[in-house]
Each structure stands twice: as structure tokens, then as C-alpha cells.
Amino acid sequence: MDDAVYTPGRRKLVELAEAFKLPSVYPVREFVINGGLISFGPKYEDVYRRAATFVDKVLAGTKPADLPVEQPTTFKVVIGSHRSARDSFMAQIDSASRWQVR
Asked: Which residue segment(s) compose the domain that 71 sits in?
């Protein structure tokens, strides 16, 4: 998930990593949009979809303690190239290894 401490300062974090020449992997794509190298994290659309099924089960009468703990199963990798504003691009790889260039 986005972090309340680091996400608001993502631009500064990216600038510091670049200034100290640190290759960095970030948790969400917004860091790459702000100039970061790579982000890797769960596909939040799927996480939210799974959360909705848990809410449905609880509303149907299942005790929350009886529900299993789940971890994300689908992930998103975003690779940024920011050589210049003119030829910057963003490539996304979903968990099925399909490329989407944006």
C-alpha cells in the first residue's frame, strides 16, 4: 500500500536516490512517474477485489476470525526511462509477463 510517510515525499526520495546514484525499487508506480527507476508491488485492483469478497462473507454471517489470511498473488512491475522528457517512456509488465508501453 502507499505509505503515509514516504509517498507524500516521493519526489524528494527519488531526487535523493538519484543524487547519491542509488538504484532504487519503489512500492508504487507514482515513484516512477516522479523519476524513479523501477516499482514493484501488488496490483491493488486485485487486492481491493479480494477485500470485497471478505466483506461479502462477513455480511453473510461468517466470523472474521474464521476467514483465512491472504497475500497478494498478482504483481505489477513498472520500469521508467527518463533520459529526457522528449523520449521518456514507461513500460509495465503484469504478472503474466505481457508488456504495455505507455
From this structure: 10-101
